[in-house]
C-alpha cells in the first residue's frame, strides 16, 4: 500500500455522526484558547488543549474511508472493521423471527481505533429492523450478543435465503445508528449505520453457508470476504 493510500485511511472524511462532537469540541477549544490568552489563565488553556485533542480523536474515530467491495454476488463481505472474537453455531436473534435452527454467527469486535461505519454484507432487501435495549458489557464477551443493547436487521437475498446483521453496543458505546428501514433494497458494501465508541457487529449466515474466516482474523468492512453464498 502506498503512503498516500495509507494516509487516506487515517484522514478520511468523517461520518456525519461526528458533526455535533466536532462542533462542540472545536468551539470549546477556540473559546478556551481565546479566553485563556485574554485572561492569562493556564486552566483555560489546558481546557483548550484537551478540547483540541478530543477534536482530533473524533476526526480519527469517525473516519469513513471508501471501500472496494468484491464485484461478485456470491459472497458475503464483512459488515464492520475489527477482529473476529468468535465463530459458532447459534439460533438467529429471536426478534427477527428467522426461526430457531442454528446458523453460523461470526462476531467482530471493534476497538475505539477501528472504523465504526457498518456496511451491508450482501445485496438484498431489508425485511426487518428490530432494536433491543440492554446492558453495556464488554462487547468482546460472548454474552454481549444476548445481553447488550443492540439493533438487529434481517436481509433477504435475491434467491430468498435470509441472513442477519446485529449492531451491538459495547462497554463505552452509547449510541447505535441505523440508516436503513424495512423494505429498503441495498447493495453489498453499502453503508447502513455506525456505532459510537467501541462495539461489536455479528453476522448470521444463511443456513448451510460455512464461514471462510477464523477467530483472530482482522476484517475490513465492505471488503473482506467472510463466506461464499
How do you describe this structure in short?
The chain is built from 4 helices and 13 strands. It has 229 residues and is α+β, with helices and mostly antiparallel strands.
Description:
The structure is a single chain. The protein has 229 residues and is α+β, with helices and mostly antiparallel strands. The chain folds into two domains: 3-62, no CATH class; 75-228, Glucose Permease (Domain IIA). 23% of the residues lie in helices and 30% in strands. An eight-stranded antiparallel beta sheet has the order 9-5-6-7-11-3-2-12, with no helix packed on it. Strands 4-10-8 form a three-stranded antiparallel beta sheet, with no helix packed on it. Helix 2 packs antiparallel against helix 3. The longest helix is centred in the first third of the chain and has 21 residues, at 19-39.
Could you list the spans in which at least 5 consecutive residues all have pLDDT below 50? Answer: none
H/I helix tally? 4
CATH superfamily of the largest domain: Glucose Permease (Domain IIA)
Report the β-strand fraction as a percent range.
25-35%
Helix- and strand-based class? alpha+beta
Question: Radius of gyration in whole Å, from Cα?
Answer: 19 Å
Q: Give the fraction of residues assigned to helices.
A: 10-25%
Oligomer: single chain
Task: Please give the largest β-sheet.
Answer: 8 strands, antiparallel
Number of domains: 2
CATH fold topology of the largest domain: Glucose Permease (Domain IIA)
What's the N-to-C terminus distance?
29 Å
CATH architecture of the largest domain: Distorted Sandwich
Count of beta strands: 13
Per the principal axes of the C-alpha atoms, what is the gross shape? elongated
Q: What is the mean pLDDT?
A: 86
The CATH class label of the largest domain is: Mainly Beta
Q: Largest sheet, order of strands side by side?
A: 9-5-6-7-11-3-2-12
Q: What is the element string, with H for helices and E for strands?
A: HHHEEEEEHEEEEEEEE
EC number: 4.1.1.65
Family: Belongs to the phosphatidylserine decarboxylase family. PSD-A subfamily.
InterPro entries: PS_Dcarbxylase, PSD-A
Pathway: Phospholipid metabolism; phosphatidylethanolamine biosynthesis; phosphatidylethanolamine from CDP-diacylglycerol: step 2/2
